Amino acid sequence: MNKVKGLKTKDLLGLRHISEDDLNLILDTAVSMKEVMHRPIRKVPVLLGKNIVTLFYEPSTRTRTSFDVAAKNLSANTTNIALAQSSVQKGETLIDTAKNLEVMGYDGVIMRHNLSGAPHLLAQNIKGAVINAGDGSNEHPTQALLDIFTMKEKKGELKNKKVVIVGDIAHSRVARSNIWGLNKLGAKVVVVAPPTLIPKDAQKMGCEVSYKLEGVIEDADFINVLRLQKERQADGLFPSIEEYHKLYGITSERLKKCKPDILVLHPGPVNRGVELSSEVMDGPYQVILEQVTNGVAVRMAVLFLLLSGKKHRNQ
Is the CB of residue 270 less than 8 Å from the CB of residue 281? Predict the structure, then answer.
């Protein structure tokens, strides 16, 4: 694989402050990485000898496994550490944990944390690359990157394309990263949710706000549906699950009123019958499993660009 220029930073902490050039570099590099995934032998030696640790303080299936597969496809060594298995249970701080891992020879840390800003703190205290795999309700950059990659793969450039993000905007790090990233590419973003699930400063992020689907999704190019994060919510934010599905669930009847080429995305895991009806979940308009595949390609691109040996401008 030919060497490409690296990112302008040693870390990937979010899409809010990433440059448009770096955003496009990741997306372009992911195209090459997806080609690697379709080879008979899905492995290249570009990160041979690199050591990567995934440090997850919250549960994860897709993200952690996707990063693990991505790293191994690039021939890196990986170690997975979950909160219940770490010395955090004995009182060790996040920074002390990371510094101990660094002196063992780890070149990069992929971290998910329940507190917003935790990866940023880590990045300031270790020399290795830090990749944010989701921090509190702040950002989840690689999920947004794979969402955007999937959209571009399906419909080309996103300038002036309309993306409707539906669901628990207030608690969603995925929503924030998508809004920041899509804005940089010129897409029109509309968020839809009950008033209790939309942050007060939503419009300041560069998106339109609506409290109902009707009148919004009919001319949309993409509907990106978010999971209801009940573990982060207070009680009483909406009357009931049934009422939520009635007003905000994506059903085949609603999709009949949309463009014939409408595409439905979801970061997973999906609550069937809540965010999406089973008919939509199993139907022709969703690209959810393609998102999962593209997640590996995007994460391969991020790991390659951060760890393949290119010197960073801020070093």
Answer: yes
CA distance 80 to 59: 12
Q: What are phi and psi of 296, to 5 degrees?
A: -65, -45
DSSP H/E element including 197: none
| Residue 24 and residue 116 in one domain | yes
The per-residue pLDDT for range 20-66, each reduced to its tens digit, is 999 999 999 999 999 999 999 999 999 999 999 999 988 888 999 99
On whether both 284 and 210 belong to a single domain, the answer is: yes
Question: What is residue 89's three-state secondary structure?
Answer: helix
Residue type, 315: Q
In what helix (H) or strand (E) does residue 103 lie, and over which residues does it extend?
helix 94-103
pTM: 0.93
Say if residue 164 is in the same domain as residue 30: no
* Alpha carbon distance 19, 103 (integer Å): 31
Q: Which residue has the tokens 């419009």?
A: 203
For the chain, which residues score pLDDT lower than 50? Answer: 1-3, 231-234, 311-315
- Candidates 133, 121, 114; CA nearest to 54 is 133
DSSP 238-298: SS-HHHHHHHH-B-HHHHTTS-TT-EEE--S---BTTTB-HHHHTSTTB-HHHHHHHHHHH
Q: What is the pLDDT of residues 236-280, one digit of tens each?
A: 566 688 989 999 999 999 999 999 999 999 999 999 999 999 999
